[in-house]
Amino acid sequence: MATLSDIGVAAAINILSALIFFLLFAILRIQPINDRVYFPKWYLKGLRSSPVTSGALVTKIANFDFGSYIRFLNWIPAALKMPEAELIDHAGLDSAVYLRIYLIGLKIFVPIALLSWSILVPVNWTSDGLQLAQLRNVTSSDIDKLSISNVVYGSDRFWAHLVMEYAFTFWTCYVLMNEYEKIASMRLAFLQSEKRRADQFTVLVRNVPPDSHESISENVEHFFMVNHPDHYLTNQVVYNANELASLVEEKKKMQNWFDYYQLKYTRNKEHRPRVKLVLGLWGKKVDAMDHYTAEIEKLSEQIMAERKRVKKDEKGVIPAAFVSFKTRWGAAVCAQTQQTKNPTEWLTEWAPEAREVYWPNLATPYVSLTVRRFVMHVAFFFLTFFFIIPIAFVQSLASIEGIQKSAPFLNTIIEKKFIKSVIQGFLPGIVLKLFLIFLPTILMIMSKFEGFVSISSLERRAAFRYYLFNLVNVFLGSIITGSAFEQLDSFLKQSADQTPRTVGVAIPIKATFFITYIMVDGWAGVTGEILRLKPFVIFHLKNFFLVKTEKDREEAMDPGQIDFYATEPRIQLYFLLGLVYAPVTPVLLPFIIFFFGFAYLIFRHQIINVYNQEYESAAAYWPDSTPFLVILPILTIGFHRFCKGRYESAFVVNPLQESMIKDTLERAREPNLNLKGFLQNAYIHPVFKDEECEDDQYEELIEDSDDENCVVVPTKRQSRRTTASSSNPNGGSSQPLSCNQPDTGKGKPEP
Predict the structure, then answer these.
(1) Residues 6+ apart with CB under 8 A from 204
(2) How far apart are the C-alpha atoms of 641 and 646, rounded to whole Å?
(3) What is the Cα–Cα distance from 203 to 596, expressed in whole angstroms?
(4) Distance between CA 443 and CA 437 in Å, rounded?
(5) Are strands 282-287 and 202-206 parallel, antiparallel or unpaired?
(6) Which among 257, 380, 609, 699 would be 20 to 30 A from 636, CA to CA?
(7) Residue 404 and residue 410: Cα distance in Å, rounded?
(8) Which residues are CB-contacts of 729 (< 8 A; sequence separation ≥ 6)?
(9) DSSP secondary structure string, 523-561?
(10) Cα atoms found within 13 Å of the Cα of residue 720, Cβ hemisphere only
(11) Phi, psi of 197 (to 5 degrees)
(12) Residue closest to 325 by CA, chosen among 345, 347, 351
């Protein structure tokens, strides 16, 4: 079990490592050759260019301004300088709200820590409960004298912990209430102020019923012209283009290889590069550029053929469509209402932003979604259940005795005091971190299998499961298995009625493990974030071997984005640890506070200078980010339900009033706006936007019309299942249906 000195050694090593990383980061970031690694966002915005240097080649690589090395921490005030309003304009509301979560941690835990250390720590320290516990063979260390474990059973001192628990809970609810109101207002203001986006006018329609007389596109057109005659504008059906997307991706790979060998040839024109035919590893050697040119031409022909097949094959059209409206108000009404008396057909939801559509899942049959999600629920249950085995192994390493049993060959090394402190302070946290390293990727794969159609919904589902996993395994699993290992001798020798009391004493003792985990996962993880070693290496390898144009260089410096599904559950776990251990073991709070402050500073710098978010959800993930409290269940569950009922709708739907205001302002400012031209191509699958796709092929995907205000809708159907009126009793094709006239089923429009 880690002692106070072990925790101190581990903390000192972490802080020293952070300072070294900061110094290394400060040196690397000011070198001209690394400018695109540490400031890629400004390059993508076109607001920064490569540093201009003259003279020898070495001056283009290294910075010889020694004054800049002295000012190696000047990036800190620069990161804090940008106001929040400017930050939202620069990086988006998602990024700004993400940073506010770290500030919420500081707002909650700094006052709680002051109260805990001024009231609870003296109460715990001056008691002698652990001395009595040692008589019952309960393992403890000097750090536990600061925890509730040191209070004698039945003592009146427990009233102090009870009162502080209520105070902590009320304070947390108060802070969260204010943040809910603030962020809900920020979201509405952001939606009102941002520029026009296609998703504001568009809904995703799924489970379109089949019609033997009309195609999916004609069916959708007819339905919405009848039922939304004043607001419907256009639609884009969804194609099953997964195979086509695979061909396009394969062509990109071949093109990259061709560019690589062409660059290699331009550097040495005496020898044309050659490559082996089978995976480049064995087989006959051929001319590399000729080989990849032939592969690219072959794939281009396959892509063109597949495009034609997808457009002509009725089975290639999914019973779903992106339907756009003339106004935001019309889209809001459609997205938030039931379309027919059959609740399983014509299902509508807000369309995700075009950039965040996860196209492969649009081809998933809607009827299979329930089965897929049930299968993933079962798989997640077993994943969570069986992971308790590595958690138990990690807890066996949480004490020197456990390490000696697991690795007896280390006995001679761990007897040294410093080595012992380092091992107890780092090893359990490092091993647990290694076990969890692939978990976010696994959970994201599971979310994709479930069929969610937007990246934000994929990330929210993966994040929710990651948090549940942390709650069950990292938190509860570590407490239960760790207590069992450390108090095994006590469990075996005492009577059954004494077991709950022993567990109650042992649980606060696990705070030392969580302190080491916070330092390894939180402190060290955030420190590594600022250095960007992996992007640093990848950029320079690509820059040396592949880059030959400015476009290639932009692709090489791709900064990526913050993976909310991996980072948010970690923040939620730290909220949970802080709120649970605040009245129990207050010594944990300074480590959490340091994490929140440290992470806020680092991620603010990264959001301003590095990350480029692929999509903008306008903080739709915020309701999933607020911590769920496990203390005082009735009060906290009631508060959770109140906030969910009061504020969640602001993050899920677009209010009709706000939509109408935005539409009115837009009509006043742009009376001649061609909205159909803006919307009709917004949701075409990316594989149809290839530069080789000719305009006439591209336009075949759109069912256009001549008159935007009054479109005549021809229909071939003999029945009128999408209208309230009866069908034409005589059969045959009906006359065209005017957008401003109801479908009467009489074969011609009403006068």
Answers:
(1) 320, 321, 322, 323, 348, 349, 350, 351, 352, 453
(2) 8
(3) 38
(4) 12
(5) unpaired
(6) 380
(7) 7
(8) none
(9) IHHHHHHHH-HHHHHHHHHHHHHT--SHHHHHHHT----
(10) 21
(11) -130, 150
(12) 351
**CA 322 remoteness from chain centre:** 24
Half-sphere exposure of 717 (CA within 13 A, CB side): 24
Condensed to tens digits (0 to 9), the pLDDT of residues 249-280 reads 888 888 878 887 887 788 777 788 888 777 66
Lookup: tokens for 96 = 């700004």
CA angle 307/312/317 to nearest 5° reads 85
pLDDT one-digit tens code per residue, 423-434: 776 777 788 888
Q: Which residues pair with 239 in a beta bridge?
A: 317
**pLDDT tens readout for residues 118-151:** 999 888 888 876 665 554 555 556 677 788 877 8
CB 220 within 8 A of CB 323: yes
Four-CA torsion 398, 400, 404, 406, nearest 10 degrees: 0
Residue 197: helix, strand or coil by DSSP? coil
| Token reading at 278 | 């089978």
Contact yes or no for 284/277 (Cβ under 8 A): yes
Q: Is the Cβ–Cβ distance between 207 and 366 less than 8 Å?
A: yes
Phi, psi for 322 (deg, rounded to 5): -95, 120
- Written as one letter, the residue type at 636 is T
- Residue type for position 220: V
Q: How far apart are the C-alpha atoms of 545 and 259, rounded to whole Å?
A: 10
Query: 681, 702 in Cβ contact below 8 A?
Result: yes
Give which of 84, 191, 255, 231 is closest to 607, Cα–Cα: 84
Please report the DSSP string for 42-68 in residue order: HHHTT---PPP--SSHHHHHS---HHH
CA 68 to CA 54: how far, in whole Å? Answer: 18
Both tokens of 500, joined, read 């709950």
Question: What distance lies between CA 191 and its chain's CA centroid?
Answer: 21
Query: What is the residue-averaged pLDDT of the chain?
Result: 78
d(CA 620, CA 93) in angstroms, rounded, equals 10
Alpha-carbon torsion (306, 312, 313, 318), positive or negative: positive
Taking a C-beta distance cutoff of 8 angstroms, is the pair 422, 10 a contact?
yes
Contact 101, 194 (CB under 8 A): no
- 591 in helix, strand or coil? helix
How far is the CA of 530 from the CAs of 72, 706, 720, in angstroms? 14, 55, 62
Burial class (CB in 10 A: 0-12, 13-18, 19+), 655: middle
Report pLDDT digits (tens) over 211-234: 888 888 889 999 999 889 889 999
Neighbours of 462 (CB within 10 A): 28
Give 276's strand partners: 285
pLDDT tens-digit map of 280-302: 666 788 888 888 899 899 999 99
Please state, in angstroms and as integers, the Cα–Cα distance from residue 632 to each residue in 26, 170, 461, 485, following that order. 46, 10, 27, 28
CA separation for the pair 708, 673 (Å, rounded): 12
Contacts of 181 (CB under 8 A, 6+ apart): 647
Q: Letter for the amino acid at 240?
A: N
Residue with tokens 């050697």: 285
Q: DSSP characters for 326-342?
A: SSHHHHHHHHTS--SSS
From CA 586, how far away is CA 123, in angstroms rounded? 11
| Number of Cα atoms under 13 Å in the Cβ half of residue 84 | 12
Inform me whether the pLDDT recorded for 735 exceeds 50. no
For the residues 647-662, what does the mean pLDDT come to? 69
Closest listed residue to residue 613, CA positions, set 466, 458, 456: 456
